Amino acid sequence: MMKKILLILIAALAVGLFFHFDLHQLLTLDGLKGSMDQFSQWREQSPVLVIGVFFIMYVLVTALSLPGAAILTLAAGALFGLLEGLVIVSFASSIGATLAFLVSRYLLRDTIQKRFPERLTAIDAGVAKEGAFYLFTLRLVPVFPFFLINLLMGVTAIKSWTFYWVSQIGMLAGTFVFVNAGTQLAQIDSLSGILSFNLIVSFALLGFFPLIAKAILNVFKKKRVYKNYTKPKKFDRNMVVIGAGAGGLVTSYIAAAVKAKVTLIEAGEMGGDCLNYGCVPSKAIIKSAKIAEQIRHGEHYGLENSTPQFSFKKVMARVHKVIADVAPHDSVERYTNLGVEVIKGYGKLIDPWTVEIKLNDGSKQTLTARTIVIATGARPFVPPLPGIEETGYVTSDTLWTKFAELDEAPKKLVVLGGGPIGCELAQSFARLGSSVTQIEMAERIMIKEDLEVSIFAHESLTESGVNILTSHQALRCETRDGKKYIVVKQQLDGKTQEVAIEYDELLCAVGRSARLKGYGLEELGIETNRTILTNEYLETLYPNIYAAGDIVGPYQFTHVAAHQGWYAAVNGLFGHLKKFKVDYRVIPWTTFIDPEVARVGLNEQDAIDKGIDFEITRFEFEELDRAITDSATKGFIKVITPKGKDKILGVTVVSEHAGDLIAEFVLAMKHGLGLNKILGTIHSYPTWAEGNKYAAGEWKRNHAPETVLNLLEKYHTWRRG
Ligand SMILES: Cc1cc2nc3c(=O)[nH]c(=O)nc-3n(C[C@H](O)[C@H](O)[C@H](O)COP(=O)(O)OP(=O)(O)OC[C@H]3O[C@@H](n4cnc5c(N)ncnc54)[C@H](O)[C@@H]3O)c2cc1C
After folding, report:
1. Residue 165 near ligand 1, beta carbon < 6 Å
2. Which amino acid residue places its CA nearest to atom 5 of ligand 1?
3. Would the pLDDT of 66 be above 90?
4. Cβ(421) – ligand 1 distance below 6 Å
5. Helix, strand, coil percentages in the chain from 3-state DSSP, rounded to 5
6. Model confidence at 201: pLDDT above 70
7. Helix 451-463 crosses helix 420-431 at what angle (to 10 degrees)?
8. CA distance 512 to 417
9. What percentage of the chain carries pLDDT values higher than 70?
10. How much distance in Å is there from the Cα of 663 to the middle of ligand 1?
């Protein structure tokens, strides 16, 4: 901070001296003309010294953003002639501009980053992609003030070297015009006369040329990917969507709603992973497990503790009934009624407009479409541990069927993975009677959340009976004397220690990988890394092929897949008229352990990592009447706001119903409402949602206007007489 203040003082002093010694008078056209004879004389006597002094002066004027650079440029022409003047000014102006740019970066970037983190991140992303082009345009078109460009670019993340060389090249034409004009100084009456309207237009055209050229190049590049294919003259469909999970369902629903002819292809079950293997069955089993736990802890509610009597088979039957009850929402019938043609079969891309469908009866059908949307989702990742295939394992894909016939929950269950899916299932199976060991390689479970949230979750799961082993890495699976073991290693005091954990069932929940193989992505050369690569409009390498959902990421949630589905449908059908960039700014998610953990926006760790000047407001549920009536007071709301402002940057809620409570903050963030607005909203009593209002109230209390309150106290004292 001191260094910054010192720099500001030095700059202010230099500017003060500049005006104090009337140097600005010298840097006018009349001042220059009046002193020209004297300058020329000095130049005759000591040319090197004059060049040196002129150079330094030019650098200082531009570095301090002082007025007079244009006059100095004319002076260069008049004093040194066209070529020499051009070289001197070109280097001096670029160096001066870069110094101004660096000062701006040093003084302003951090502050602006802290105040407008999201906006600056978006600008930086744009600058990283096209910064040099934009800078070149700004430099070439003389209507953009020179000093402003230096200061503004300093706030962005453009590299200093890029700034320097692009500036030097970009300013060359303008410098030439001014230096050349300077060689005829006597004939110049005003600065505005130097740049004629035609010249400005020519510069503008030159400036925009690279951007226009780039746009044209992009069009050609986009077209080039199609060069080995013949585009059909007519299409069978406006859109074909592959995959009927959340992403594909929403895409096709929207396409049909706007009267497009759309076909949805699904190889497996309608509804995809969420309905059949993911959200729905997991939330169903979580509910049964929670009831079992509440019966076990009846005393908590003034009842008697007792052992829940249940058949695991019935619990699993309920899970399947829940799936069946939700299934009509995603069914072929429903979507057909909505105007979507649904084909059960395996879709494969043949060319950028053609999909071949292997129907379930073995026959094949081919469809052409102007737009294709890939929504093929992800599948559980199974770590390649030696012995795992021999000893066997389940994943979220297989456990619901495999466990359906068990009379009891697996006696010894190992859950591999400490992410949301692993945690939800570990707690549920522990509550349903399994002896669960959960293994996590990282030092804590739910690593994406704040440390205190991980600790909270760790305690909740441990209370439910889960034995959590963090910092343990799975090495191999083996069978000894008919028993199955997973061998894990732990680093303890610098030593590696191996432990073998016996299990009846091993559940792999270490992440989910996008389905990238087997349906034509490789053949068409569609770029992938761990997911399909798309631009911000969800276009793949082929602008008419889009992707949505888990296959794209970066979030693997049903609601994000659905959100992307809207963009894939709208951009896919109307992108030639107007395209929309996917908006990922306000994405909530919930981990449905008990108590739940819900998040939107930044958590404390993110705010620290981003260098934001933030503050935390907390509300503890032990203060909430409804939490007390429900004997569920554990948990908190943690709101991140910029220092001194009520703008919500992010919220973490840990409590019963946290997944529902977060919705109010999501709405507030999405529509730019601050904590004051939440505080000013009536919440019915006694509800969990009141916690949101109290969190806002906590913020308000922390920002009470002390001076005003002190005055009010005095006023009331006076009124009492
Ligand atoms: C245990 C578990 C719990 C979860 N809980 C939650 C939760 O609580 N909340 C949440 O938001 N998310 C949750 N998720 C994540 C959620 O399920 C996914 O994010 C969501 O299903 C992604 O939808 P999608 O459309 O991208 O893909 P999917 O749902 O995977 O659908 C893709 C579909 O494409 C089909 N397909 C693939 N290839 C082809 C082909 N070539 N031809 C035809 N069809 C094809 C597949 O059969 C599949 O049906 C959970 C996931 C799991 C595993």
Report:
1. no
2. 279
3. no
4. yes
5. 50, 20, 30
6. no
7. 20
8. 11
9. 95
10. 23
Question: Mapped to the 3 state alphabet, what secondary structure does 662-689 carry?
Answer: HHHHHHHHHCCCCHHHHHCCCCCCCCCC
Three-state DSSP class for residue 111: helix
Q: Which residue type does 68 have? A: G
Tokens standing for residue 193: 């006369």
In a 3-state reduction of DSSP, which class is residue 632?
coil
- Taking CA atoms, 571 is separated from 198, 222, 486, 506, 715, in Å, by 40, 16, 48, 43, 62
The pLDDT of residue 569: 98
Best substitution site from 265, 269, 279 to test ligand 1's pocket, by max atoms within 8 Å of Cβ? 279
Q: Is the pLDDT of residue 461 over 80?
A: yes
Contact 395, 380 (CB under 8 A): yes
Q: Tell which atom from ligand 1 comes closest to the C-alpha of 265.
A: 43
Q: Are 147 and 100 in contact (CB under 8 A)?
A: yes
pLDDT at 243: 98
Q: What pLDDT was estimated at residue 121?
A: 79
Query: What strands, in cross-sheet order, belong to the sheet with 467-469?
Result: 467-469, 435-439, 412-416, 505-508
Instruction: Read off the pTM.
Output: 0.81
Would you say the CB of residue 555 lies under 6 angstroms from ligand 1?
Answer: no
- Residues paired with 650 in a beta bridge: 601, 640
Which helix (H) or strand (E) element contains residue 641? Answer: strand 636-642
CA of 306 to the centre of ligand 1 (A): 38
The length of the chain in residues reads 721
CA dist 220 → 215, 490, 516, 542 (Å): 9, 55, 27, 12
452 vs 436: CA distance, rounded Å: 23
- Taking CB atoms within 8 Å and a gap of at least 24, the contacts of 219-224 are 222/543
Measured CA to CA, the distance from residue 217 to residue 209 in angstroms comes to 12
Element (H, E) at 599: strand 596-601
**Over 408-438, what HEC string results?**
CCCCEEEEECCCHHHHHHHHHHHHCCCEEEE
